[in-house]
């Protein structure tokens, strides 16, 4: 009886180890790969002279409708006026990423309401644009959920294939709503080896 119990315990332990190693392998295969190709992951250069910044802002009609700042690695974008959109971006080297499948993501915290002053896609979150010879070849803006409402910190990401020959790549954070968008832990990496259900 004691020998049978001992055998059962050994088999149970072995099964647990196999399950853990399988889960780890699946998790690794589902995770974006390699180094983070973004600069200034804590948004610490936002107020530096332009030549020292990694992130650059633009907004509709060059208005003064949005305020943005960073503290403790958290980017905060707040709408204060009547223009419809604000964008904070950086431009990774397209030559390194052309022809590759990539994932751009971050953690977002939303306090965003439906806008009443424009017909653009409402919300806040991720934006990715690629061009080749001046022509847009990838344009992904706010193609994730949630992008409106009030949330705690949530991870969001988009995965695209950058077409060969791409000569401009821009990733960033788009605000097209009323309220506040917060962002932390941005990343741009090679996409996972396989698609996994989320």
Question: What is the rounded distance between the termini?
Answer: 45 Å
Helical percent range? 10-25%
| Arithmetic mean pLDDT | 86
Element-level helix/strand string: HEEEEHEEEEEEE
Oligomer class: single chain
Shape: globular
Number of strands: 11
Describe the main β-sheet briefly: 6 strands, antiparallel
Indicate the CATH architecture of the largest domain. Answer: Sandwich
Helix/strand-derived category reads: alpha+beta
Domain tally: 2
CATH superfamily of the largest domain: Galactose-binding domain-like
Q: Given the structure, what is the number of helices?
A: 2
Query: What integer value in Å does the Rg equal?
Result: 21 Å
CATH class of the largest domain: Mainly Beta
* Percentage of residues in strands: 35-45%
Low-confidence stretches: 4-26
The CATH topology of the largest domain is Jelly Rolls
What would you note in describing this structure?
The protein has helices at 2-30, 94-97, and strands at 56-59, 66-71, 74-79, 86-90, 101-113, 123-132, 135-141, 149-150, 154-161, 168-176, 178-190. A hairpin with a 2-residue loop joins strand 2 (66-71) and strand 3. It has two domains: 1-30; 34-190, Sandwich (Jelly Rolls). It is globular and about 40 Å long. The chain is α+β, with helices and mostly antiparallel strands and 198 residues long.
């Amino acid at each position: 009886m004691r020998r049978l119990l001992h055998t059962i315990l050994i088999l149970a332990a072995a099964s647990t180890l196999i399950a853990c190693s399988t889960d780890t392998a699946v998790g690794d295969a589902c995770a974006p790969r390699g180094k983070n190709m973004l600069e200034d992951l804590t948004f610490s250069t936002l107020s530096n002279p332009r030549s020292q910044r990694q992130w650059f802002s633009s907004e509709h009609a060059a208005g003064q409708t949005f305020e943005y700042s960073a503290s403790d690695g958290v980017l905060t974008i707040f709408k204060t006026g009547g223009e419809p959109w604000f964008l904070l971006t950086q431009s990774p080297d397209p030559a390194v990423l052309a022809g590759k499948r990539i994932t751009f993501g971050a953690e977002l915290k939303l306090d965003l309401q439906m806008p009443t002053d424009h017909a653009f896609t409402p919300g806040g979150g991720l934006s990715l644009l690629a061009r080749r010879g001046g022509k847009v070849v990838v344009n992904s803006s706010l193609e994730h959920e949630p992008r409106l409402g009030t949330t705690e910190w949530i991870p969001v990401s988009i995965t695209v294939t950058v077409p060969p020959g791409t000569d401009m790549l821009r990733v960033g954070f788009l605000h097209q709503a009323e309220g506040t968008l917060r962002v932390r832990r941005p990343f741009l990496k090679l996409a996972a080896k396989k698609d996994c259900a989320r």
